[in-house]
Amino acid sequence: IVLDSSLRIPKGAALISGIDAAPLWLACAAPAPGCADELRRLGAEILPLGPSRNGLDLKSLLGLLAERGITRLLVEGGPHVLQGFLDADLADRIDVFHGAAAAGKGGLEPFVTDGLDRIANSGEFIAVAERPLGPDRQTIWLRKDRA
Description:
Layout: E1 2-3, H1 14-17, E2 25-28, H2 35-41, E3 45-48, E4 51-52, E5 55-56, H3 58-67, H4 79-87, E6 93-98, H5 117-120, E7 125-133, E8 136-143
Parallel strand pairs: 1-2, 2-3
Antiparallel strand pairs: 4-5, 6-8, 7-8
């Protein structure tokens, strides 16, 4: 499942060329005319969603996935995607992987402009486990009211 609000995925992307090995679902809001049809011809399934203030309507996306029997989802995305799931109250568990080096030039905030204090100080999540992974570490946070 790829979140691509305008269907900007290159037609030669590995996800498309490997579509016979694994299905490709593209969640979008406003695709360019004809773009969705071309991607369908290549074998992708288009999941049209309405927009939200932070991008795609993620609650609608989860509803579509639930209709298809998907009730658990691992979200691996950039800061905007992660913030969207938090803002929409759609995160039950957050696994944070801390590396020794900063991600990106000067570091990258995990939630657009917010650091990890967004979950650590929110009162909504509790850290339930922490473990080393070589030189890095993993911290698991669960939402208090759903733990």
